[in-house]
């Protein structure tokens, strides 16, 4: 948060790049407070395989709490499809497929190319399968949801872990970051959710799980409430600066409760 206080007041425009690690709503709101009122804030959406596809000017404070990425730039088309490759309706979440002149021709590996560039009925050119999930608003704007990789199924229920993470972040001001994943308990042979939390207030760790769970109960269905909470000093990152979920520590026992981890990632 100290970085935010050093932002130059001469800044006229600032861009948040999506996908990657989406900027947390709280950080976006805090950053906006540190900038002069005339500063324009944009969400930029794209990928290496297709370049920049959309640029959206965030016009109001509520929009900082979502990842609105707007409409495709000229000559680009975005399609939202479900698991059966059918177009979704307004408000439904689907995977983003992109077509246009900026879409790449393929990887050096033909197998990867076949998975990434797909044919959609009724569309002449092949489309790039992004792996990103989004939904259309009534006005036709796209709102980024999460990576398809982060969409999980637990006891028959489809869960967007990003939704859980945002609720946890909103529960306490001292929580600066959070990651939710699905784990498997080999002892009781059951899948469960675990929340990894970064907090600046270590003194309230004993009460943190209770407070966060109560807040979750008010905002999400019961099947979306993690059964385990781990407090970390930091989240493991990969070489690209993104959260490395494979390096997150595992709970040491099957009785799920809040645990503190010193941040040393094995």
Structure description:
This protein has 266 residues and is α+β, with helices and mostly antiparallel strands. The chain has two domains: 2-149, 3-Layer(aba) Sandwich (Rossmann fold), CATH 3.40.50; 155-260, ANL, C-terminal domain (GMP Synthetase, Chain A, domain 3). 16% of the residues lie in helices and 35% in strands. The protein contains four helices and 15 strands. The strands form four sheets. Strands 4, 5, 6, 7, 8 and 9 form a six-stranded antiparallel β-sheet that branches. Helix 3 packs across helix 4 (205-219). The longest helix has 15 residues, at 205-219. The two termini are 27 Å apart. Residues 244-266 are annotated as: Disordered. Residues 163-242 form the AMP-binding enzyme C-terminal domain. It holds the Pfam family AMP-binding.
Topology:
Blueprint: E1 13-18, H1 25-34, E2 40-47, E3 51-58, E4 67-70, E5 77-81, E6 93-99, H2 110-116, E7 117-118, E8 127-136, E9 142-147, E10 151-154, E11 157-160, H3 161-171, E12 175-185, E13 190-199, H4 205-219, E14 228-232, E15 259-260
Parallel strand pairs: 1-2, 13-14, 14-15
Antiparallel strand pairs: 2-3, 4-9, 5-6, 6-8, 7-8, 8-9, 10-11, 12-13
